[in-house]
Structure formats: C-alpha cells, structure tokens
Amino acid sequence: MAKYDFDLFVIGAGSGGVRASRVAASHGARVAVAEDRYLGGTCVNVGCIPKKLLVYSSETSGDCADAAGFGWRIGNVEFDWRTLISNKDREIARLNGIYRRLLENSGVRIIEQRATIVDPHTISVGSDRYTTEYVLVATGSWPTVPAVPGAEHAITSNEAFHLEQMPERVIVVGGGYIGVEFAGIFHGLGASVTQLYHGPLFLRGFDHDARRAVADEMIRHGIDLRMNCDVVRIEQLGGGIRAILNDDSTLDADAIMYATGRHPHTSGLGLEDAGVKLDAAGAVMVDRYSQSSVPNIYAIGDCTNRIMLTPVAIAEGRAFAETVFNRNPMSIDYENVPACVFSHPPLAAVGLSEEQALKRYGAIDVYRSSFKPLKHTLSGREERAMMKLIVDSASDRVVGLHMVGPEAGEIIQGFAVAIKCGATKRQFDATIAIHPTAAEEFVTMREKISPA
Q1: Stretch 157-170: mean pLDDT, rounded?
Q2: Which of 183, 200, 283, 316 allows an S-S link to 300, with CB 3.0 to 4.6 Å?
Q3: What is the pTM of this model?
Q4: Rounded Cα–Cα distance for residues 131 and 101 (Å)
Q5: In what side-by-side order are the strands of the sheet with 347-351?
Q6: What single DSSP character describes residue 386?
Q7: Helix-, strand-, coil-residue percentages of the chain, each rounded to 5
Q8: Is 262 exposed, middle or buried (CB count within 10 Å of its CB: 0-12, 13-18, 19+)?
Q9: Common-topology check for domains 6-143+263-325 and 151-260
Q10: 339-449: what fold?
C-alpha cells in the first residue's frame, strides 16, 4: 500500500505547473494539481495570449491607415470592443479546454479549489486533506499596486481584459513590459493614452538604445509619454477618475491602469509554517534544481521570481519532473533567454545590453543601424527600425542582439539560437542575407560605433 495519496501534489495549473504534472505523470507518478482560478494560469487567461490578441487588433488601425499608400481605398473603419473581447474569451475558453484534456489524458487528477500546505507532506483543500511525497508550488505572480490614496479606483492588467467598454481616455502607470504594451494597445484601438513612469526612461533592464527607440516611436505615434512622473492620489469623478501627479498637475481619464510590476503569488499558502524560506518579496527561495529549503517541496515559475516568462516556467517544470521522477538531474541555463515587448513597434532582445556587456567584458565592439522599413516608404508612416549587435572584442562572439521594429519577436527568436550556440561576428558576416528583409541588417552591419 502506498505511503501517500499522491507522489506529487502541484499547487497551480499554469503553464509551468501543467508541464511538470504531465511530465511527472509520464514517468509513472501519481499526480494531483489544484487550481482555484483558471487552467492555464496567467499566460493563457490574463497574460501572454489575450494580450497578443489585443495587440493584433490594435495594429489593425495602423494597417488600415497604411493601405492607401499601396493603392487600397478603405471606407469608414469602425472598431467594436465587445466583439474583440467576446472573440478573445471564446479563444481562451478553447485553450482552457485543451489544458484540461492534456491533464486528464495524462492521468492527472484536477482539483478546482484552493490548496494550502499544512505540513511538508499534507495539503488541505476545502474540508479534505491529501498526503503527498512531493509538493510543487507553481502559483505564479500577481499585479502589484502601490498604496496610493484612491488606488481602489484603478485597474490592473487582470481587469483590463474584461472591461465592459473600452475607455476613451486612459492613464497607464508603469514602465515595464505590461505598461508599455497596454499603452500601445489602448492607443491603437483609438483611446487617448498618457503613460507615466517614475524614472528617466522606461523598460529598465533592456539596452538603452532600444528603450530610447521605443520611447521615440511611441511619442511619434501620439502617446503622451511622461518620464519622472508619478501619481500621488486618485479621485473619482462621476464616471471617470482624476489623477493628481507629483508635480501637482492633474489628469482626467475614464480609466487608470497600474502596471507597476508583479509579485510572487505566495501569500496564505502555508509555506512559511511548513518551513519554506521566502525572500523579502515573498518569492520561494530555491536552488538550481528548484528545490526549496524543505527537501520535498519545490517551486517553479513566477513565484520564485527568477525570470518571469512563460517559456522559462515551462522549462523549469520539465526540469523539475525529470530531476525528481526520472532520476535525470536537469537545471535551467538562464543565460541568453530571449525576450520581446509587444510594443508599437515591438522590441526584442537576446543576450546582454551594451551596458551589461561593458561591465562584463570591458572591451566590446558595437554595431547599430537605424532605418525606415521598406514597407513605410510607400505607407507614408514615419516609423524607424533600430538594430544593434554587441560583440566581445576578445573572442569575437556576439553577446547581445537587439531590435526595435516590425516582427522583432519573430526575428530575434531565430537569432537566439545563434547566440545560444556562441556565434561570432565573423560567422554573422559570412551569412548570406535574405533580401529585401529587415532581418538582413543583422548580417550586413560592418561599421562599428563607439560604445556609450
């Protein structure tokens, strides 16, 4: 007779938790996964997938405007928010069903209730208790809203996907991925958008030239971008809101959205009572194999606050299951993880920024190109693309690759393989370009610029 009810109990059925559950089950483990919100987690329901669908919609207005330069005459263009949200909801429901079938077909038991940890081997779900040999915490992250007076009148990305109607005037507070993306989404859908960031330049952590290029294009598109600016108080005005800023000026809008970061969603799980160490931000502290301070309790994904990206959580989930249930120790290499901000235009990067490369290598070579994409020579749109290569002078290895421009994410995904394989600038130069494309710039840049 088995000592425990399950070999593995997973708390959280997001991308990482689902992957870990399925891989563990494929290796013969008896697995249960508890989820109290929605299958697929943040990415599928209020993150990557619905966000990208809204990005596609917001880009359509620009495509319609561009069409005249190519000989197309388009009549009155109308946008209906409720149609977009309804279609988005239908697609998310389809994906929820796929996640359910994946788990069920793998033999994983799904428990759609909140689970908490009683002790290292006991899980409480409602009035039931289950015992388990291993516990995997995969509860993701949650939007952070500062304690600003009137913050209860604000929304976050969680609510933005479910608004009854699209606000005509929007204030976006924050300068990370989510803030920049939603500023572009609302603006592309026809709203008047003001974005506020408390620092001198948003998208901290990305290359400075790329950040500057995105900011310049957003301003060119008509977004009211304000740096070194923050909200000190929010007041309700009839059906809208008024934001009082740190320079004593005011902004009136129909909605104010906070995109000021996300924190590990670990509160109230019983982790600390079970002996699991958390850091100051509430993240589960783990080793390279995702093992916590309690030997049989592991954690993956956003709740560990390593790299908050869905593909990273999926990789961590698989590595955990291989390590624990297949006796195949596997850890994740967090070097050269590609990333994309689906801004207008998008920014994508892999490897080090110029600032990071200077600090690590000292002597670097920098190549940068800025140009109007071929499409816009006829569309009439005043938009420029920027591409940048950073090379370690000593080894000739390309250690950073950055792009701001159309299809940046698709282009950087391919180059990420080359960077991961340690490609050199000489090998880039020896690669024949596909012409005419924007991506060919990465293999035709020859003139160095002076590092910043």
Answers
A1: 97
A2: 316
A3: 0.96
A4: 25
A5: 339-341, 347-351, 398-404, 385-392, 364-371, 448-449
A6: E
A7: 35, 25, 40
A8: buried
A9: yes
A10: Enolase-like; domain 1 (3.30.390)
pLDDT at residue number 450: 81
Quickly state the pLDDT bin for 432 (edges 50, 70, 90). Answer: very high
Residue 101, amino acid? R
Question: How many CA atoms are closer than 13 Å to the CA of 380, on its beta-carbon side?
Answer: 10
Q: Is 239 exposed, middle or buried (0-12, 13-18, 19+ CB in 10 A)?
A: exposed
Query: What pLDDT, in 10s, does the model give residues 169-199?
Result: 999 999 999 999 999 999 999 999 999 999 9
Question: What six digits make up the tokens of 133?
Answer: 């040999």
Distances (CA, A) of 338 to 40, 133, 212: 22, 35, 19
**What does the pLDDT look like over 284-317, one tens digit per residue?**
999 999 999 999 999 999 999 999 999 999 999 9
Which residue in the block uniquely carries the two structure tokens 């974005």? Answer: 195
pLDDT of residue 239: 84
How far, CA to CA in Å, does 46 sit from each of 164, 246, 329, 331, 370? 16, 30, 33, 28, 34
Q: Looking at the annotation, which residues are catalytic?
A: 435
- Supply φ then ψ for residue 359, to 5 degrees: -70, -35
Classify strands 6-11 and 128-137 as parallel, antiparallel or unpaired: parallel
Cis peptide before 436, with omega less than 30 degrees from 0?
A: yes
151-260 in CATH: which number? 3.50.50.60
User: Tens of pLDDT along 101-124?
Assistant: 999 999 999 999 999 999 999 999
CATH C-level class of 6-143+263-325 = alpha beta
- Read off φ and ψ for residue 337, nearest 5 degrees: -85, 120
Burial 78-113 (b: 16+ CB within 10 A, else e): eeebeebbeebeeebeebbeebbeebeeeebbbbee
Torsion of CA 226, 229, 230, 233, to 10 degrees: -100
Domain boundaries, the chain: 6-143+263-325, 151-260, 339-449
